[in-house]
């Protein structure tokens, strides 16, 4: 009897082991009509997620991508957070992906990102709805409104913020710049005033940002859990605000949130309340965080490269000298005249690589350079691998704005530059970001000098962060 039980147990165990082996084999060797790119899918379900999120203290391409490019080439396969993905460091494939938006590819992000930004976020919308929302956002962030309204408001708020920082022994630049931009843009989006209760909204976004690009484990104490709680609390504030405004039909339109509520109040609204709320959430986040990171890195790079800082200062001091009133605000004509500043901005965002990956999904089996990208697989376009490619940019880790001299103005994504995305989804906030950066640089270099107090170390996980902060002291110029 005991022998029979042992045999039965042994048979069951053997069957389970064989089933697990077969499952693992099918995981690592998926069927495809063609030839998959080389690479490893890692462990079943977990894939290579741990390696992807591993921190590294460098401005260079992440070790995860760099090592695989060396082993497999510029196009390889992997698996991240449970999804099979083709990673592209190939400029031709990147460009093809962007240009075939809505035909061969569509915008897509892993489920964990969708949970973070909302299932109705603009990145998950396609076709008419996406174009409709983009048109609405461009009313606020397009060049016409930037020229007529936002440039002057940006200049005034920047001057006030810098003066406040200069009165302190030191300031943590990333947090200070984030606060400045958040206060400025949130006022246009939701009539935010720092002295009012909406201050808690930014605290929620700070919590959200800390875990935005982290290992997706929603357990108390983890960065991802903190991120999700930050989103939950921010959405509560936005929903409460929406209910209060919708209950006041006589309210005059004051900000972008009112524009969305007017759209919702139409007889046959195009969007839903969920879409409107997720759009507001994404705009509040995207309007300040990416630009604040780029500017913080930019100040660090300027401090480390006095030749660039000198040339930049000369351009801006010349603008001030040519004014009838040296204390007058920045004009659109002055902004458009900032040739070297534009080069500096491009170089900062090239090195910053704020967005480590841009995701799309294949709508059908796609053949490219001898490889097959199966229908339903994700594609991760990897901007850092292009921006830091020595075959494209000489000495790619060097901060050299002159490399952009005499180049055609970039108004969209190209094969070799995609800091603001590309194709139909070229970032609608690009012009706003450039205005914010140019205005901040203008106010900083014409009125202040500074010294680094402490911090400034960077870590990528794979997004950019300053774990020790970046503290500096500002000194008014005579």
Question: What kind of oligomer do you see?
Answer: single chain
What proportion strand?
5-15%
Low-confidence stretches: 14-25
Structural class: alpha+beta
Radius of gyration: 25 Å
Tell me roughly what share of residues is in helical segments: 40-55%
Helix count from the secondary structure assignment: 17
Give the strand tally: 12
Shape: globular
Largest sheet: 5 strands, mixed
End-to-end separation: 98 Å
Mean pLDDT: 86
- Spell out the helices and strands N to C: HHHEEHEHHHEHHHHHHHHEEEEHHEEEE
Main β-sheet, spatial strand arrangement? 1-2-8-5-3
Q: Can I get a quick summary?
A:
By secondary structure, the chain is α+β, with helices and mostly antiparallel strands. The protein contains 17 helices and twelve strands.
Relevant terms:
478 residues; three-stranded antiparallel beta sheet; 17 helices; globular; alpha+beta
Describe the structure.
- The chain has 478 residues and is α+β, with helices and mostly antiparallel strands.
- Helices cover 52% and strands 11% of the residues.
- The protein has a 5-stranded mixed β-sheet with strand order 1-2-8-5-3, with helices on both faces.
- α8 runs antiparallel to α12, α9 packs antiparallel against α10 and α13 packs antiparallel against α15 (339-352).
List the helices and strands and how they pair.
Blueprint: H1 2-28, H2 49-53, H3 63-72, E1 75-80, E2 83-88, H4 91-99, E3 105-107, H5 111-117, H6 127-141, H7 143-166, E4 171-172, H8 173-190, H9 199-210, H10 223-246, H11 256-264, H12 273-304, H13 306-321, H14 332-336, H15 339-352, E5 358-362, E6 366-368, E7 371-373, E8 378-381, H16 383-387, H17 430-447, E9 448-455, E10 459-460, E11 464-465, E12 470-476
Parallel strand pairs: 2-8
Antiparallel strand pairs: 1-2, 3-5, 4-12, 5-8, 6-7, 9-12, 10-11
Helix pairs in contact: 6-7, 7-17, 8-12, 9-10, 10-12, 12-15, 12-17, 13-15
């Amino acid at each position: 009897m005991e022998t029979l039980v042992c045999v039965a147990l042994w048979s069951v165990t053997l069957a389970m082991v064989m089933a697990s082996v077969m499952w693992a084999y099918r995981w690592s060797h998926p069927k495809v009509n063609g030839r998959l790119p080389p690479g490893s899918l890692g462990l079943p379900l977990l894939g290579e997620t741990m390696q992807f999120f591993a921190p590294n203290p460098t401005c260079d391409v992440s070790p995860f991508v760099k090592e695989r490019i060396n082993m497999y080439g510029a196009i390889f396969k992997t698996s991240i957070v449970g999804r099979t993905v083709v990673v592209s460091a190939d400029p031709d494939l990147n460009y093809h992906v962007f240009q075939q938006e809505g035909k061969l590819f569509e915008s897509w992000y892993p489920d964990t990102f969708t949970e973070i930004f909302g299932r109705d976020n603009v990145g998950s919308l396609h076709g008419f709805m996406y174009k409709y929302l983009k048109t609405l956002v461009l009313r606020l962030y397009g060049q016409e409104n930037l020229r007529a309204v936002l440039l002057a408001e940006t200049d005034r708020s920047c001057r006030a913020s810098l003066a406040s920082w200069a009165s302190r022994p030191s300031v943590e630049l990333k947090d200070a710049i984030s606060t400045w931009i958040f206060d400025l843009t949130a006022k246009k989006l939701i009539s935010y005033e720092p002295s009012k209760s909406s201050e808690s909204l930014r605290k929620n976004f700070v919590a959200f940002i800390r875990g935005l690009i982290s290992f997706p484990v929603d357990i108390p104490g983890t960065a991802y859990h903190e991120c999700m709680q930050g989103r939950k609390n921010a959405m509560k504030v936005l929903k409460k605000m929406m209910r209060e405004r919708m209950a006041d039909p006589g309210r005059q339109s004051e900000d972008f949130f009112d524009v969305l509520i007017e759209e919702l109040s139409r007889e046959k609204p195009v969007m839903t309340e969920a879409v409107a709320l997720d759009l507001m959430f994404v705009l509040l986040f995207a309007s300040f965080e990416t630009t604040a990171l780029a500017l913080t890195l930019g100040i660090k790079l300027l401090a480390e490269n006095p030749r660039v800082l000198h040339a930049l200062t000369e351009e801006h001091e010349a603008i001030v000298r040519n004014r009838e009133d040296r204390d007058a605000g920045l004009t659109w004509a002055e902004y458009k005249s900032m040739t070297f500043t534009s080069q500096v901005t491009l170089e900062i965002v090239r090195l910053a690589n704020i967005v480590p990956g841009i995701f799309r999904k294949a709508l059908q089996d796609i053949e490219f350079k001898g490889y097959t990208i199966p229908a339903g697989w994700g594609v991760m376009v990897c901007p850092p691998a292009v921006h830091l490619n020595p075959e494209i940019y000489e000495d790619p880790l060097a901060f050299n704005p002159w490399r952009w001299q005499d180049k055609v103005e970039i108004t969209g994504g190209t094969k070799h530059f995609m800091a603001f995305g590309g194709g139909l989804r070229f970032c609608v906030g690009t012009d706003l970001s450039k205005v914010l950066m140019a205005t901040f640089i203008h106010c900083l270099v014409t009125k202040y000098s500074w010294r680094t107090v402490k911090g400034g170390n960077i870590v990528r996980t794979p997004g950019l962060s300053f774990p020790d902060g970046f503290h500096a002291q500002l000194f008014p110029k005579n």
